[in-house]
Amino acid sequence: MAGLAATFGSGAMTNSINEFEDADLFLVTGSNTIEQHPLIGIRMINAIEEKGSKLILIDPRETPLSSFAKIHLRPNIGTDVALFNGFMNIIISEELYDKDFVETRTEGFDALKTLLSRYNPKVVEQITGIRSSDLYHAAVMYAQTDKAMIVYAMGITQHISGTDNVKTLANLSMLTGHLGKPSTGVNPLRGQNNVQGACDMGGLPGVFTGYQRVNDPATTKKFEDAWGVTGLDTKPGLTITGMINAAHSGGLKALYVMGENPFMSDPDTTHVEQALSNLDFLIVQDIFLTDTATLADVILPAASFAEKDGTFTNTERRVQLSRKACSPPGQARADWEIITEIMKRCGVKSPYRGTEDIMQEINRLTPSYAGITYSRLSKGYGLQWPCPNEDHPGTVFLHRDQFTKGKGTFLPCEYKPADELPDEEYTFTLTTGRISYQYHTGTMTRRINILEREAPEPLLEINPEDAKKLGIRNNDKVEVQSRRGTIEIKAEVTPRVPKQVLFTTFHFREAPVNKLTNPAFDPIAEIPELKVCSVKIRRCS
Amino acid sequence: MKLVAKKDISECLSAWSSTYSILCPTLKEQGERVYDTFDPATFTLEYRKLPMPLKSSFLPQSEVIFTIENGNFTPVLNEGRMLIFGIRACDLMGIRQSRSFFGRDLDDRYFRAYAENTILVVHACSLPQNETCFCTTTKSGPYAKQGFDIQLFDMGNDFLVEAGSDIGRELTSSRHFVDFDDVDAQERFSKIKHMAHNSIPVVPEVTEAIDFLKDSSANDGVWNHLGSKCIACGGCVYVCPTCTCFNVIDSATTKEDGERIRTWDTCLYGGFTKEASGHNPRSSQALRLKRRHEHKLLYYNKTDIQDALCGCVGCGRCSDYCPVHIGTLEVTKAIVDHIY
To answer: Which residues of B touch A436 (CB under 8 A)?
Structure first.
């Protein structure tokens, strides 16, 4: 989010889901699109199979997309900045960049060019392990195809260089003019149905709704007037990473967790557990008793999606209305009702009678959501922001004639190695992700019988050559140890992972992989480096 | 035979609703049409092939089949009387095939409890519902030959009414149904059926593919290719009138009490055929797709298919909804074309 906002002025998927049907090329990096974003994955499959569109896949691991790829580059983990700087070095030296676009729509090209001169294909090959000839083919193919979409997910962002990775992809798309047109752009795929909506609604430490900054006095005044209060805090708050660290050091005393299971999902579980136990007061609001909730002082049972009214904003910025289909069980209530009850007990009268009242407030205070009203949403299949007034049809793709911030800014980034690199003791790199049949920390999916049948237990993927050397066979129990912890897990011997790389998921409490992961984080977005840590592995006797 | 005015159908349904719970085509807020409980305000006759084939009325997506309380076993059997109005002939054939399957070797009393308590009113098709209809190929439409209580044929402002059972005759004895037995009634009836039949083109690839499969001359490359793009969503199974595989789960409510639930399942999931040892005889998506389609087109039971061609009833929904275009029409075409 931070990377795209800095470059373009807007941190969201630039283009839309249906545009995948017409694209001529997909550059997919750090996304297992077929398994994790199947509605987008199927559009890629159909475009490739039926229209001859091309796929450049960049992923150290094989995924179902691999068999569709014209080129599959498997770089060393954590070397994305170098890789894409290498792309741009080739594109500039071959004069394949979009000079007109660069001149009229962007700024900062000279600084980019200077930096890129240090990333010739031979240097990049040394860093990434990608042969310079393969790099050349991929770069030329991307530059020379008009309707070319960049697609990424957590494989790009969950690194200490996450923001730099995104900026570098944004540089690549501007350099080639693959922006502001249908079936192009830089497209981060959001990993949950409403994570875009949560960000849009100010679920980030430095902004109100619609990314209006808390440290802008005019904005703060607007919200103070609307809410009839004074003295709103103008300092950005803490990120999740910051909160856990503050709880650990004693600076944070109380934490209210809604629909999140940090005990399972955050890096370095031992540290997280100490931090949560160190709080004076922990509230957890969720639809099921999560692992985090077992540590809570107060648990507030929430309604599930089918038991409440409201809207969801999906990955393509589309706001959709969701209606209550049945009543919540027991004492459970919709999140907004729980929050307004707490407001009441704090002596604040809630002005909301229902979710439509809340939406009206959003419309008044959020320029990009101003035209997204319940009456419009109930008539169609949602509206894509920005939608500045009630006559506006919504925005299919961003940055058509100019960027949100005017000119797009090239923000050149140097390659920085991952925080933890393999050494003599911890010789393997562990990376984590998701599989089709389970979802995140399993709060919901692990209760579904057929999903449990399909994926009943955690498995650690290990390359056959490594397995042979270590005497590990399929289904053998292995011990995996990092500087922070140890887990036991069954091995799956498979060429899906390259040599010296291990992969597993964070779905299973039986082998909580985040005991191992590295809490080092990106300095801007403060997203932890969940995709890289160094481990050692041995077969359990 | 009888005639009934279309404008009187809603009133007939209202009258029948005192005896039966009624499922019929309804128009939803945003223009979608689905089978739902009868309500005069939302009931519609303006509908084509509906997204779901009504199998959930006989085999619910998830149902408790028995409970254990204080050590006592109590089966949970449907007792409600239901009338399904407006079912298409292909879907009726799906129900007939499933009923045979669920009663042939062992009596599935849960399925039977629904089937025996349900009145079926078929709305025969006079034209293809969309471009994927191929019931004339699978011999399952456009009108039903048996297995219905009432069948309606479109005659403009009226329906021509064919009763298929004693209950059907009784239900069509009210004042709304007028006799239609003049000299040329039979002739007109034959003509309607003939025109309907001719309006839906036969798809020769389907029968040719069946022949290829019988001769074992279908190329495995087809399955490998289709398997590589199948995302195993199970959508084709979900909308298929004759896919009835289920899973059984035991759920304990307390230490002593609990219930057994059965839910829909699919042979396209790896776990469906995975054995306790970990071995899976259908070890790839290609083999699982092959199994599913061969079950429809080749390894069907002769009794179960009733008087149709095979275990596929030609509704075309898999071709309508498969997100990567692996419906029966595409599969049979790929087999015949030998392109892989």
So the answer is: 232
| H-run or E-run covering A536 | strand A533-539
The fraction of chain A above a pLDDT of 90, given in percent, is 95
Angle among Cα B228, B233, B235 to the nearest 5 degrees reads 115
How many structural domains is chain B composed of? 2
Taken in order A127, A130, A134, A139, the sign of the CA dihedral is negative
B214 and B160 belong to one structural domain: no
Strand A533-539 relative to strand A477-481: parallel, antiparallel, unpaired?
Answer: antiparallel
Residue A541 pLDDT class (50, 70, 90 cuts): confident
pTM greater than 0.80 (yes/no): yes
Q: Do A19 and A141 meet the contact criterion of CB atoms below 8 Å apart? A: no
pLDDT in tens, A431-480: 999 999 999 999 999 999 999 999 999 999 999 999 999 999 999 999 99
Q: Do B231 and A378 touch (CB under 8 A)?
A: no
A174 CA: distance to closest CA in chain B (Å): 32
Domain boundary among B160, B180, B202: B202
Strand partners for A408: A106
Asked if B229 lies within 8 A of A49 by C-beta distance, the reply is: yes
Could you tell me how far CA A111 lies from the centroid of its own chain?
28
Please give the C-alpha separations between residue A461 and each of A355, A478, A488, in angstroms, as whole numbers.
45, 11, 13
| SS3 (DSSP) at B181 | coil
Q: Which residue of A has its CA nearest to B266?
A: A450
Comparing alpha-carbon positions, the chain A residue that sits nearest to B230 is A42
Whether residues A379 and B30 touch (CB distance < 8 A) is answered with: yes
- B186 shares its domain with B95: yes
Task: Mark whether B257 and B164 lie in a shared domain.
Answer: no
Dump pLDDT digits (tens) for A205-257: 999 999 999 999 999 999 999 999 999 999 999 999 999 999 999 999 999 99
Q: Residue A403 has what DSSP assignment?
A: B
Mark whether B189 and B292 lie in a shared domain: no
Q: Which residues pair with B119 in a beta bridge?
A: B83
Interface probe with B: pick from A51, A375, A454, most Cβ of B within 10 Å: A454
Instruction: Enter the ipTM.
Output: 0.92
In this structure, what token pair is assigned to residue A465?
Answer: 């050559």
> Which candidate from A41, A449, A454 shows the least CB-CB separation from B231?
A41
Domain-terminating residue out of B148, B170, B202: B202
Query: In terms of domains, do B288 and B225 share one?
Result: yes
Question: Quick one: which of A512, A508, A459 has its CA closest to A485?
Answer: A512
Same domain, B264 and B311: yes
Tell me: the pLDDT tens digits for A250-276? 999 999 999 999 999 999 999 999 999
B105: amino acid identity, one letter: D
Classify B83 as helix, strand or coil: strand
Q: How confident is the model at residue A513 (pLDDT cuts 50, 70, 90)?
A: very high
Cβ contact A454–B247 (<8 Å): no
B224 and B169 fall within a common domain: no
B271 shares a domain with B184 = no
Cross-chain CB nearest to B271 (options A42, A68, A453) = A453
Contact list, B233 vs chain A (CB under 8 Å): 38
A329 lies within 8 A of chain B by CB: no
Structural domain of B279: 205-337
Query: What's the CA gap between B39 and A512, in Å, rounded?
Result: 51
**Site from A450, A452, A457, A494 to mutate, B interface, most B CB atoms within 10 angstroms:** A450
- B139 burial type by CB count under 10 A (0-12 exposed, 13-18 middle, 19+ buried): middle
